[in-house]
Write a structure and sequence with these properties.
Number of strands: 5
Helix content: 40-55%
CATH class: Alpha Beta
CATH topology: Ribose 5-phosphate Isomerase B, Chain: A
Amino acid sequence: MTIFIGADHRGFELKEKLKQFLLNKGYTVFDKGNDHYDETDDYPDFAALVAKEVGEDPDNRRGILICGSGVGIDVVANKFSRVRSALANNSDQAFSSRNDVDANVLCLAADFLDEEEAKKILSVWLQTPFSKEERHKRRLRKIGEIEISN
């Protein structure tokens, strides 16, 4: 699995730690920025870069996005076709986002998570498969229909 990661200045430090965590676990990771701390950067830029990559191959690619609240990057990522982005503040939400919604982008709030909690959330999210239950597949088909019609 290929993972694309990105963050603005508020998420930069956590991104760097999670990137190393993922590399140590053997994942292939592409950092879409920022590549340095820049307090004037804007989260939509990095969220768009990651979401575009994931949307090109949503079954085999995953995205990790980090900003202060996690909300802004989640909003941006969900603008892209075939991207199902989820803001998870705990491991239970991370599990549900994969099990029920087959989320392919995980958004994290650097202002509200410490490194260890973020690693726990990320680990659960990456290890949880989509359940493929019919009710969840039905709901995802409806989401796809909405994407096509708008």
